[in-house]
Task: inverse folding
């Protein structure tokens, strides 16, 4: 017996669901009883229409492939409110991260900004590059003019470890 | 030579679905001294029992082995059955093929059958060494201690007292009534809580068979079923109960204001006060932590209450009293507590004054409460334009309490209906719910009544409640039915706090040896078949101390527990299991190891000429076996579990394992 999403004609893929469950290293996802507390408080809901409770249910039903190739999983701003407040410890955040990892494994389309951030970390060791600051008197400062210590690019060993960690996931 | 009968039960497919019962029976036939071996679908059924009885008579069997479920389930059933057939009831050995074999080894039927055979072989080896035993009869006290004076304790006490038993009801608060006394109306009939409770409270106060101890505490419990010795402390009220007439003149003159606990701290009372308007006994009490005289311990300080009291009831020198009671049974009815929502910061409780708990709403709604029954926002003192009820606070939540509180939904429905009835159409009322569980008699109809009254149900729980500086509250809720994010504004948010185990339960657990379940409440002896008893004989459970409950269920359980206590005590004597320790006087060296170990204080040292000898007080002994295991000379034995009987089993197990190539 099986179900079909009549809106998109999608069929559940239970093998993909198992992969997500394996990535979560626990089965708390299946405890979600749809109280919708996560979506009520989701930071990414109002602008980007992320509905964590829907993601929980879709993964539970096995509609994982559609999610891992969709844009919506990349809208989570990782504020972790859902982790903290979920009464069933089903934590949509962890599910979303697992879906993102699955998307990368499957070489699905990953938003450009995420890829940029990864290469930035690889090259500079920092998630954001340094920017000049402007004071109230409209003077521009940078690290050198503020006499802050120089930050050096990471060593090669860091890059090796970082790349390895990315591959292991 | 003994003549042994072996009976293997299928337990439907519970055992036979895994264990090959025919093979096991065939195997049993080949064991020494086994005369009969049979298998049957349900050995515990009438035909099953009659089959065993017929064989006992026909084949002159004198030892029986029954391979079936756990002895905790049916040992007593089979003992009765073989006693009816004329055999001593202690000549039966139960082999547990269900909990020990078929259930844990469901996926390995072959090995399960081998294990079943081995256990039957061990049972046969043991049963031949069993001895006939007789039950002891002891007399019991025809009186009961009831701990806790909420509706559960009140109902149990009245039932027992009306049946002619003497009852001592101990309550820690200054008045009986408990949580129910704090409620305004009760679901699903909207009876006024005080109207149905107060007459019962008065009955308790007046009943000739009930000794009421308020402001009390159980200090110590000794003894055993039917013969408990209890000491109860009565803390001083500093008011003579026999003189005080409850006129409250003292309260009017007392200069010290204190938060009123009965009103959940939402109003103030004085350091000398009467607990509530319906209090039983209606006697004033002095709070020694706040009273100026008692704090300073100086005779010239204050004393206004004593000057004004016409009955001369105030006694600053009153001392604690201790009562010694002898009771046959004990009913624990200490109730539960309300979940403290400040542990859940997202609810805004204690951060925003207009977020209140369900019990606080009850006090606001009650005409005897701090607002005289008007529903007002605590911050502004004005009636709110909209009220939102939020469900499942602290319950169905794995961070706090996993269980369903069983009352939250109905409490919110009731409070929403009360708010609508009191405030008319001028207020919008919303209930943010998860699932509405209206399971009881008349409850679903009550839910429909709420919808009839224009109460809006929002399927979704807010993530957090936020407050504006003017005291109004707002929050977002994603609604399941509309698939839309709603922004809600409320003048008052009422939380449906769950019920949590009473903080006194760890003390209760120590005093009465009443165990607790994983959720923290007291554990019943069997979840389905013995819900009113604790695992300790003679100790019964009533009300929310055993698990969250509404009033109808609490009253039902309290009456049930009272009936159980009557069942125990009515005949004036009870039978005790003979599985006790016995001491061989010739072997006892008087080393006192057993005396120091016995958890039931059942061993006394007696002087026998020059030497000391241990002696077992039979009624106290629970047959746990600690003494027997520790005795260096082997002088202490446990009947039915003597070394020779147990070792025969062990030996047979080993021999069989070696023969099987182990």
Result:
């Amino acid at each position: 017996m099986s179900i079909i999403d009549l809106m998109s004609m999608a069929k559940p893929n239970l093998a993909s669901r198992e992969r997500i469950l394996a990535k979560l290293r626990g089965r708390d996802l299946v405890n979600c009883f749809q109280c919708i507390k996560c979506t009520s408080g989701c930071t990414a809901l109002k602008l980007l229409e992320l509905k964590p409770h829907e993601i929980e249910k879709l993964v539970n039903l096995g509609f994982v492939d559609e999610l891992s190739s969709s844009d919506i999983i990349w809208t989570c701003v990782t504020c972790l409110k859902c982790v903290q407040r979920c009464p069933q410890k089903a934590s949509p955040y962890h599910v979303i991260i697992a879906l993102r990892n699955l998307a990368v494994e499957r070489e699905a389309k990953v938003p450009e900004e995420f890829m940029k951030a990864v290469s930035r970390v690889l090259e500079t060791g920092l998630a954001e590059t340094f920017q000049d600051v402007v004071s109230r008197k409209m003077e521009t400062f940078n690290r050198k003019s503020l006499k802050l210590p120089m930050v050096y690019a990471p060593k090669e060993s860091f890059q090796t470890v970082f790349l390895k960690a990315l591959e292991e996931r | 030579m003994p003549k042994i009968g072996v009976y293997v039960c299928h337990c439907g497919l519970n055992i036979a679905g895994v264990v090959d019962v025919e093979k096991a029976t065939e195997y049993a036939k080949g064991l020494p001294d086994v005369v009969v071996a049979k298998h049957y679908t349900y050995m515990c059924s009438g035909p099953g029992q009659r089959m065993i009885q017929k064989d006992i008579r026909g084949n002159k069997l004198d030892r029986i082995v029954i391979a079936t479920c756990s002895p905790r389930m049916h040992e007593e059933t089979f003992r009765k059955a073989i006693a009816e057939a004329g055999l001593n009831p202690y000549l039966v050995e139960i082999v547990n093929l269900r909990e020990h074999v078929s259930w844990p080894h469901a996926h390995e039927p072959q090995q399960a059958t081998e294990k079943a055979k081995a256990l039957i072989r061990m049972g046969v080896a043991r049963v031949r060494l069993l001895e006939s035993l007789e039950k002891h009869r002891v007399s019991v006290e025809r009186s009961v201690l009831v701990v806790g004076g909420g509706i559960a304790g009140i109902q149990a006490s009245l039932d027992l007292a009306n049946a002619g038993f003497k009852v001592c009801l101990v309550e820690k608060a200054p008045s009986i009534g408990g949580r129910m006394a704090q409620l305004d109306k009760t679901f699903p009939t909207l009876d006024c809580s005080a109207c149905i409770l107060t007459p019962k409270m008065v009955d308790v106060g007046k009943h000739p068979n009930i000794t009421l101890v308020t402001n009390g505490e159980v200090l110590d419990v000794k003894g055993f079923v039917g013969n408990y010795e209890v000491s109860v402390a009565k803390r001083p009220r500093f008011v003579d109960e026999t003189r005080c007439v409850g006129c409250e003149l003292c309260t009017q003159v007392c200069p010290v204001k204190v938060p009123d606990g009965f009103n959940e701290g939402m109003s103030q009372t004085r350091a000398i006060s009467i607990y509530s308007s319906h209090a039983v006994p209606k006697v004033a009490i002095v709070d020694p932590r706040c009273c100026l005289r008692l704090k300073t311990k100086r005779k010239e300080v204050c004393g206004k209450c004593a000057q004004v009291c016409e009955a001369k009831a105030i006694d600053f020198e009153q001392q604690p009293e201790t009562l010694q009671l002898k009771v046959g049974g004990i009913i624990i009815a200490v109730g539960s507590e309300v979940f403290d929502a400040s542990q859940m910061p997202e609810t805004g409780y204690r951060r925003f004054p207009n977020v209140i708990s369900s019990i606080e709403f009850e006090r606001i709604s009650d005409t005897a409460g701090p607002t005289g029954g008007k529903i007002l926002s605590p911050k502004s003192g004005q009636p709110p334009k909209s009220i939102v009820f939020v469900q499942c606070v602290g319950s169905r939540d794995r961070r706090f309490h996993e269980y369903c509180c069983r009352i939250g939904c109905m409490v919110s429905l009731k409070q929403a209906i009360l708010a609508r009835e009191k405030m008319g159409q001028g207020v919008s009322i919303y209930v943010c719910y998860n699932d509405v569980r209206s399971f009881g008699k008349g409850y679903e109809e009550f839910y429909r009544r709420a919808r009839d009254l224009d109460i809006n149900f929002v399927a979704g729980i807010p993530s957090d409640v936020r407050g504006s500086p003017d005291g109004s509250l707002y929050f977002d809720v994603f609604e399941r039915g509309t698939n839309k994010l709603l922004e809600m504004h409320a003048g008052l948010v009422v939380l449906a706090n769950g019920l949590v185990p009473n903080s006194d339960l760890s003390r209760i657990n120590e005093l009465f040896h009443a165990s607790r379940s994983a959720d923290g409440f007291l554990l019943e002896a069997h979840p389905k078949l013995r819900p009113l008893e604790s695992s300790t004989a003679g100790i019964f459970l009533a009300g929310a101390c055993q698990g969250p409950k509404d009033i109808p269920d609490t009253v039902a359980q309290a009456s049930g527990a009272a009936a159980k206590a009557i069942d125990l005590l009515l005949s004036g004597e009870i039978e005790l299991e003979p599985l006790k320790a016995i001491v061989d006087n010739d072997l006892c060296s008087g080393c006192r190891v057993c005396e120091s170990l016995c958890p039931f204080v059942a061993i006394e040292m007696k002087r026998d000429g020059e030497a000391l000898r241990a002696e077992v007080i039979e009624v106290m002994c629970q047959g746990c076996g600690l003494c027997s295991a520790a005795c260096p000379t082997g002088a202490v034995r446990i009947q039915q579990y003597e070394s020779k009987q147990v070792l025969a089993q062990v030996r047979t197990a080993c021999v069989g394992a070696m023969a099987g190539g182990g």
